[in-house]
Structure formats: structure tokens, C-alpha cells
Amino acid sequence: MTQKSGISKKTLMGLICAVGALLVCLVTALVVVYLVRQSDPPAPDIEGRIDVSPTTLDDTDIGDGIVVESIGRYAGMFVEDGTDETVSEVFALTVRNTSEKTVQYAHIVLSREGEKYEFDLTTVPAGAVVQLLETGRKKLPADVAGLEASVTLWAPFAEEPSLCADIFEIEGTERGITVKNISDRDVTGQIYIYYKSAYGDKLIGGITYRAGVKDLAAGASATCYAGHYSKDYSKVLFVTYVP
Q1: 72, 149, 202, 232, 240 from 236: Cα distances, Å
Q2: Is pTM, for the whole model, over 0.85?
Q3: How buried is residue 64: exposed, middle or buried, by Cβ count under 10 Å (0-12/13-18/19+)?
Q4: DSSP 3-state helix, strand, coil percentages of the chain (rounded to 5)?
Q5: First CA to last CA across the chain, in angstroms?
Q6: How far apart (Å, rounded) are the C-alpha atoms in residues 132 and 214?
Q7: Four-CA torsion 10, 11, 17, 20, nearest 10 degrees
Q8: Per-residue pLDDT, 3
Q9: pLDDT given at position 38
Q10: CA 179 to chain centre
Q11: DSSP the chain
């Protein structure tokens, strides 16, 4: 009697099903890896989290064209002193500059029966919105009724600040800013780049940061370290140099 060799039909079908299942798993894993690689990296906690408290101050011009957008309780990085320490429940004030000038510096005070909350802002262009934190990290009071707001100091730039786009080309990287002299003459001396944190169209923090390079020959470029600069979450506002 001749004996048949090989595997049975039942065993063969089992192997085919197992291979098919393995291929499905591999394809699924590849799709997941692709989607993870294609997705955007998580945004840094620049804007923080704010619980807005509607008040009678909303949409009010508190002086010199500074209009209150909202008041709220903030949790996130404290940017106002450059430490970026994590805080919570801090009084946050969002305002818009409705004047026709870039504000170089302004000081805002909210007060009520002995309570006092202070906010500083710098370099806010006309029409821009900026989110501010109370300079002393004071918490938002449980009840905001009765708070009065005023601008106690306000100073615009004597001349509107400029990016000097006819002289310099500026490109940002993570923690760095590259400046190229695109003019046909050498620039000697210090060149400063001023920037702020930003989330979309909203400027974040009253603080303005500064980085700089020195002595750029025509056509030359240099990169400076900028500790608070992010390619995606910063905005260069102006440049200064000695002509």
C-alpha cells in the first residue's frame, strides 16, 4: 500500500488563516506607526489653561486704547519673569491694543477695597491681543465683582519699531535665530532681535525677549542662541542696529 505524504487539507487551511492574521497585524502596526509619525508633535504649554470669568470689564477701554478681552484663572508656565515655572490659579488678564501705535510699555492695575492686582505689558503692536499674568503671581479672587481697572503708565514707541526687512533676513529655529545681512554694505556693532511668545495670533506674556549678534558683513549670516525662542510659538517683533 502506498502511503501519502505531506500535510492534511485541514492543517493547510489552519496555516493559511494564521499567516493571514499575522499579515493583518503587521499592516495594522505599520499604519499606526505611520499615523504617529505623521501627526504633529504636542504643542508646548505656551498658552496654558484659562477658566474665563465673565465680568462687567469685558470689552471695556480702561485707558489709552487698552481694551479688556477677558479675565480668568490661569494654570501653566509663568512667563512674566522668564522662569517658566509651573503655576496655577494665577490671575490672568487678556487685553487688546486698539490704539494706532505699538505700545512700548504699559502698567495696568485692577483694584477693589484695598486689593490690588498689577500687570505689565511690553511691545504690543496696534490691534494685537496679549495674555498677561499678575506680576506677583496673585490668584484670581473667588468673586471679581467690583474690580476697577486703569492704565497707570502708558508709553508708545517714539518711532514705530521695524524688522528692517531691507537690511536683514531673519529665520528662527528651536532656541536659535539666524540673522543674514541682505544689504550691500557691512553692519558693524550690535544687532538685537526682539521677540515674544505667541500662540496663533495671541501674544503670550507681558515680557519681551531679546537676542543678538554682532558685526555682519554684507551677505554674511550669524545664529544667536535664544533661550525662550520657539520656531512655532514665538513671534519676532522688531530689530535694532546702529546704521
Answers
A1: 27, 30, 13, 11, 12
A2: no
A3: middle
A4: 10, 50, 40
A5: 106
A6: 32
A7: -140
A8: 47
A9: 34
A10: 21
A11: -PPP-S--HHHHHHHHHHHHHHHHHHHHHHHHHHHHHHSPPPPPSSS-EEEE---TTTT-B-STTEEEEEEEEEEEEE-TTS--EEEEEEEEEEEEE-SSS-EEEEEEEEEETTEEEEEEEEEE-TT-EEEEE-TT-PBPPS--TT-EEEEEEEEE-SS-----TTTEEEEEETTEEEEEE-SSS-EEEEEEEEEEEEETTEEEEEEEEEEEEEEE-TT-EEEEE-TT--TTTEEEEEEEE--
Whether 86 and 77 have beta carbons less than 8 Å apart is answered as yes
H/E run at residue 56? none
pLDDT in tens, the chain (243 residues): 444 445 555 554 555 455 444 443 433 333 333 332 333 334 445 567 878 878 899 999 999 999 999 999 999 999 999 999 999 999 999 999 999 999 999 999 999 998 999 999 999 999 999 999 999 999 999 999 999 999 999 999 999 999 999 999 999 988 899 999 999 999 999 999 999 999 999 999 999 999 999 999 999 999 999 989 999 999 999 999 998
| Structural contact between residues 105 and 208, judged by C-beta atoms closer than 8 angstroms | no
Of the candidates 149, 93, 147, the residue with the CA atom closest to the CA atom of residue 124? 93
